[in-house]
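Internal ticket - ligand job 321, zinc ion:
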Amino acid sequence: MQVDDQVPTSNVIRSEEFWYPDGSVVLVAGNTTFRVYQGLLSQHSVVFRDMFTIPQPEIAEKMDGCPIVRLSESPQELVHVLRVLHGGNLNLLRPDVEGIPFAILAALVRFGHKYEMLMLRDQALKLLDQVFYDTPSKFTEFTFLSEHLDYAPVEIHLREAITVVNLARLTNTLSMLPLALYMCSQLDEELILGFEQDGRREQLDPADAVLCVSAKQRLSHDITHLLFRMFEYDDSMSKHCADRDFCVPLLHDAMERVGLENYGTVLHFGPLDGWDHFMEEAFEPVAPCSSCQSRTCKKKKLGRMQIWRNLFVYFKLDNQT
Ligand SMILES: [Zn+2]
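stdout (structure tokens):
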């Protein structure tokens, strides 16, 4: 086991939550010690099982008669994991449980990957897959990014997509990348600066940050292009239109209302957002003929799906689809 943080055991504090008097191992994370059970750790982790069964020179230190294992994780991260393992919170990972904080899942994925607690890691990844999917059929239910996050089974903030990208890279779970990178591309300064969580600085790898900056620009172009294309009175519309002279000015007005009078409104929302309510407003109080209306909506639907497909190209994921 790598010893990353040589905190002298005289300067550490005991975890109030995880100090079992009959515990059989002392874990040291940062400046905090945790007295827990070897058996439980071994049951879930190949790495801990090997560590406890094969004599390890680095765990020769002892505290209260227990071997000491120093970990590089922060105390907060370790608490998340121990609450699931030792606190009997395995139910937290049931697929029907809603509102689990993202930080817990992130700690489980990272810890589970490093210490080969594969069952825990994969259950946590499965929950994240409900938010970060790459299937087009699910995307049809995607309305607004803000709603997508608000109603997710995981309690997650936009900036935490940075962590999701890093976890996806770590575990080679590439299916999470299109939406996670897309969400990162919608960040402002945090895209570059990252943020602090549980004693860890979460930041994108420079290569991923570059992808996001480039994608942000290309997606803005896409959404602007779609706005003009969908209200354009093209051949597909003129073919079935009931009255060209009636519809053309109305379509032009609708485009102005959605894109020009409220300039910035469409761009204010994300390129993947549905903005259906803009469409309703755009055709009020007088709407073009039903054929032009439905054709406009169809162009919008097809355009959104194209933007979704573009994510795979912009983020260089097209080989994985
Ligand atoms: Zn028409």
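Auto-summary: Strands lie at 13-19, 25-29, 32-36, 62-63, 66-71, 100-101, 154-155, 195-197, 200-202. The longest helix spans residues 206-230.
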